[in-house]
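Handout, page 2. Input:
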Amino acid sequence: MMAKAPVKSLIFRLAIPTITAQLINALYNIVDRIYLGHIPGSGGMVLTGVGITFPIIMVITAFANLIGAGGAPLAAIQLGSKNKDKAEDILNQGFTCLILLSVVLTTIFLLIKKPLLFAFGASEVTYKYADEYISTYLFGTIFVQVCLGMNTFITAQGYSTFAMVTTIIGAVLNILLDPLFIFVFNLGARGAALATIISQFVSALWVMKFLLGKKTILKLNHRKFKITKTVMLPVLALGVSPFIMGATEAAINIVFNSTLQRTGGDAAVGTMTIITSIMSFCWMPLQGFGQGAQPVISFNFGARNKNRVSEAIKLIVIVCLIYSFTCSILLESFPAFFLSLFTNDKALITYAVPYTRIFFIGLGIFGAQMACQQIFMGLGEAKLSLILALLRKIILLIPLVFIFSSFWGVNGVFIAEPVSDITSALTAIILLTLNIRKIIERGPNT
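Output:
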């Protein structure tokens, strides 16, 4: 299938399930906020408090991506090169790393959560809700690591529909359990977190069942759990890029919230919580499309099918740009509608509308940055992928937030986003244009 099926139909066949999975995965992040934002009386403050915990959640997710997004393309390249044993080593050692990471992350964040939450922008009013949510959520860290980190290896084998079901199971459970725990049991923020970790536990069981079953090409095997440098260093090198994307997303969230708390108070922080929720629902399908296309790129790159690799790359760039441009038009035209999905506070919606329009000006070209980064990862190009990951958040966005806010206050924080998005997208296009031909001609470093 990977070597002979028509490239366009193959990519969409693999990408539709991964896009669906990412959209559903986005529900993990935003369905809690939708329910919490509609709690009578205190919904706005509960939403703001839970929003303050997102940097911790993003870091946990980033570590899952470090192993999953770093290992899965390399495993697919090895399968394309007919090195099944090496691909299986990547899977098993990656699993060991995910378990170890979950223990370390849970322990560290439970110990330092209070000073972190205040540093992230919590006030005396919102800290209570932030603490209730994250204290419960952290006990599900191991489920997040296994579910997100290992599910990418299922997609890498071509079973994208099964990988999609992983997220469907968790998201549907989350949607059903949230109102039960939040409103019926009156657990508020703690109930939302409890619903999430139960859902992630069931999804993790589903992933394990597949990787221990008969269908999988790459199987979990305890004899291969021992970590070796030769296997894991390339995984970590490639995984650094998506890790930095997640970690810097956490960093920028901290910068956003702390700066907005200082310049605009809880209303500004609440606005950013909603806007970042909308943004995640926009970029996750882009990530899903890239993940669906990556096995096609990686397998054929490993098999040295140059024409199929080139065809796949062109399709990814075109589709991602069309999608991001469409999202930009909708958000610029109907901001109040999208804001109202997260809160019924009319004053907050009115306050947030102009900032929403500013924030999403650069979204139209953002698809190019996402496409290029996914392409470089599919080709095993860790350095170029890392450059793009560092550029958008670390080099551009975080400094721009501080610079622009010093001149324009709250407005400056929101202006920094489109400037960063446009600059990084143009840079990504230039890097792809300059490097892609020689990478394809050279072939994989195996």
